[in-house]
Amino acid sequence: MLLPAQELLNMPVMSLQTGTEIAETVGCVIDPDTLNILAYEINGKSLDEHPAFLKIEDIRELSDIGFIVDSSDEVISLDDIVTHKQLYEAPVQLESMHVIDEQHTKLGKVEQLVMDTQSFRVEQLQVRRPFFKSLSDTSLVIHRQQIIAITPDAIIVRTPTVRESNQSPLEKQPLINPFRGTRPPQPESVKSDRH
User: Fold this and answer.
1) What is the distance of C-alpha 6 from the center of its chain?
2) What integer best gives the mean pLDDT of the chain?
3) Is 79 domain-assigned?
4) Are residues 104 and 80 in the same domain?
5) Domains of the chain: total
6) Percent with pLDDT over 90 in the chain
7) Residue 7 maps to which CATH number?
8) Vertex 101: Cα angle to 149 and 136 (nearest 5)
9) Are 21 and 106 a contacting pair, CB within 8 Å?
C-alpha cells in the first residue's frame, strides 16, 4: 500500500512481549542511492539508548496500532548501524529538495515522499510546482524510475518526452450542431375516421 512517509512518524512502537508501547517514531534514515528506508529513529522514556533506532527488518508488522516488534531488544544504538551511520550523521533531506530535469529545468521542490508499506521503499515524490507553473499544475508526481541521480543540491529526473504516433494527424472536420439545420422527417399523424 502506498502511503505518505510522514504518516509513519509519531507512530507507536509496540512490544509483543509486554503488550505495551516502548517508543514512537521520530524520523527515518533513508538511503539516497536506493530510496530504501533503512531504519526509524525512535524515542521513548523507557529507552536506554539515545539516539535509538529500529531497523526495518526487525519490524514484525505494521498495523493500525503502530509498528509491532518482538521486544525492546530490537532497539539498537547508532553504533549498531555501523554501515549506515553516515546516513544518520549527514542525512540527505529529500523533503523540500529542488527537482530538476536533465535539461536543468526547475520542476519544483519535493513536498512529500510516498512509500510502499510492504517494502519500505520510497516509490514516488510529490513535487510542488514553482509559482507560475502552479497556475496550470499545482503538483507533479515523479516515480522512482524517473530519478537519475540525487545530489546534495537537487534531485535530477529524466526529461519528459512525448511519444510520436505513426497515425496521420486528424483532419479538421466541420462542426455539426445536431440542434440546428434540417430536421429528420417526422412521422405523419394518423387521423381517425369517426362517424
Assistant:
1) 10
2) 83
3) yes
4) no
5) 2
6) 51
7) 2.30.30.240
8) 135
9) no
